[in-house]
Amino acid sequence: MTALDLLLPPTCSGCGVAGTACCATCLAGFGPPARLQVPGVGPPVWTLAAYHGTARELVLAFKERGARALAAWFGALVAATLVAIGPPPWTLIPAPSRRSAARNRGGDHMLRIAQETDIATVAPILRLAPGVADSVGLTAIARKRNLAGRVEVRGPAPPGTTVLLDDVITTGATASACVRALRQAGVRTNAVLVLTSAQPHRPGQ
Prior knowledge:
This protein is α/β, with parallel strands linked by helices. It contains 8 helices and 8 strands, in the order ααββααβααββαββαβ.
């Protein structure tokens, strides 16, 4: 515990209860991995929660509000999930952020989560080329056009079960563009894992 913790005790980013960055009740909102049917994304897609309620609040707190302590919590969830997705060794490829967004957040937020898993090799080989706009508010078609040809692969990925990691899936445009870019670079994506899934996706069989 630091002096800052004594002056400003942590509160749960999901519900506001004092004493921890994420309480057990809010953490329980992330269940076992559920398979999704996401058109246009080749490999299996798995999610840990729907993008609403406390799960949404926790993702936004980490992504946009500087709650960096949540990286360890999310990393533990991802590590536990990898066992259900495929055999070791695991390689996590964080979905890329726009450079300006990463600067505003003090770094790549998905890379930070991937590095907290401990049990997987992290391969931050994806980059977004200049010209990619913020996807908030864009239609599915606009999201696809926004990313077309703008996901770059920088270097090889280690062998093993390769998992693309992202925080939320909406239309599937980002996952599809990343998987396509990796395939063109000779990297096979075995699965896509997202912390949350926005509607209208429904769990598949």
